[in-house]
Amino acid sequence: MNRGLSRKLRRLLVAVVGLGALAGVARAETVSFGTDWKAEAEHGGYYQAIATGLYKKYGLEVNLRQGGPQVNHAQLLAAGVA
After folding, report:
1. HSE-CB of 35 using CA atoms within 13 angstroms
2. CA-CA distance, 18 to 71, in Å (whole number)?
3. Is 80 left (phi over 0), alpha (psi -120 to 50) or beta?
4. What is the share, in percent, of the chain residues with pLDDT greater than 70?
5. What pTM was computed for the model?
6. How far apart are CA 31 and CA 49, in angstroms?
7. Bridge partners of residue 34, in order along the sequence
């Protein structure tokens, strides 16, 4: 009898943890940030993390904006875009 109860408790615990994980995925935080220049090798880690889903694994939806001579990151930040 005790063994059956412990199985039921384990199943309930797994279900609760699974629902918690789904809720965490549903509440992904959206983050936008800009690089200092157009895509370069030194920015490869950011692009790789997006491609492999590393940011999503930790509940982040990341938008990467390329920089350049015509991009004013201070204005984008003030406008709430970056």
Report:
1. 18
2. 42
3. left
4. 67
5. 0.60
6. 14
7. 65
